[in-house]
Amino acid sequence: LASVTGRIGLLGGDLDGTGAVTGTDVYLSRAYSGVPLDNANYRLDVDTSGVLTGTDVYLVRMLSGLTLPAW
Fold first, then answer.
1. Considering the chain, what is the average pLDDT of its residues?
2. Which of 67, 57, 20 is nearest to 44 (CA)?
3. What's the pTM?
4. CB 56: neighbour CB atoms within 10 A?
5. What's the Cα-to-Cα distance from 40 to each of 15, 25, 44, 67, rounded to whole Å?
């Protein structure tokens, strides 16, 4: 059996999966605040409370500017 080496990057607050927490992520968290959690928007629940709230928006704002390192 052959082995495979790889890397996985995970960045809290990176809601759109670009590798950086930007204004777009803040916008997404604000736009969906108060919306019931489902299979389409579960990534927006940054604090993993099961509810999309202002706390999620706050956390994304605090993480804004962070990026994944270049591989």
1. 93
2. 57
3. 0.84
4. 23
5. 12, 15, 9, 24
